Amino acid sequence: YNDTIDPGAIDSTVDPVEGIDDRTADIERLLETANVVLESETDGGESERTDLSAVLREQIGVLRSNAPAVRIESDIDDELYVESNHFVDEVFRNLLDNAVAHNDAADLTVSVSATRTDDGVVVEIADDGSGIPERIRDEVFDPGVRADGSSGDGLGLYLVRKLVESYGGEITVTDRSPSGTRFRLWFPGSR
Q1: Distances (CA, A) of 156 to 84, 85, 105, 114, 160
Q2: Which one of 11, 18, 63, 158 is CB 3.0 to 4.6 Å from 143, fit for a cystine?
Q3: Cα–Cα dist 144/28, whole Å
């Protein structure tokens, strides 16, 4: 269909082919997200012992590759085992991608910490960006909620919450002083 559009025939400052390509990419991401949600809901509780420290380090590597201008600070303990499924990387990919997507990467620092506690594992992912608007902060984990100007589908943080809860964990979001956002995740530990 893109090939049949003559961009010169449309008086617009936006290239219609680029717009269609962008929307197609959005729809593909939405379908991938929906697939992850469906599979996590119908997984039957199948889980395996997973080292979150390895998952976090891998996702930080992906972020460094995709957004080299972002400063990344990390303090991750070794051998942070939890019970999860193969979607656990989606939790951290989404949180890290959101930090970059909603802020200026050239002026952004993302901090990732993970430590073992008496009853599990705590992961914090924070950025020093503009933060989540107060008017949506309380609903940010609900489906369809997104910031003004966001090109996302409003399902990413919903997916994150559903996955974390499916592992028996919890997730919260708060402001980071003086600016930015902090996500705190707790997972029950696995021996």
Answers
A1: 18, 17, 19, 21, 6
A2: 158
A3: 16
Q: How far apart are CA 99 and CA 109, in angstroms?
A: 9
**Which has the closest alpha carbon to 152: 136, 175, 128?**
136
Q: How many angstroms separate the CA atoms of 1 and 116, rounded?
A: 52
pLDDT digit string (tens) for the chain, length 191 residues: 556 555 555 555 667 777 777 767 766 766 666 666 666 565 555 789 999 999 999 999 999 999 999 999 999 999 999 999 888 999 999 999 989 888 888 889 999 999 999 999 999 999 998 888 888 888 888 887 777 766 667 788 888 999 999 999 999 999 887 888 999 999 998 87
Paired tokens of 89? 């990387």
Rg (CA), the chain: 18
- What is the DSSP secondary-structure string of 111-136? EEEEEEETTEEEEEEEE-SS---HHH
Q: Which of 69, 183, 180, 182 is nearest to 130 (CA)?
A: 180
CA dist., res. 52 & res. 175, Å (int): 24
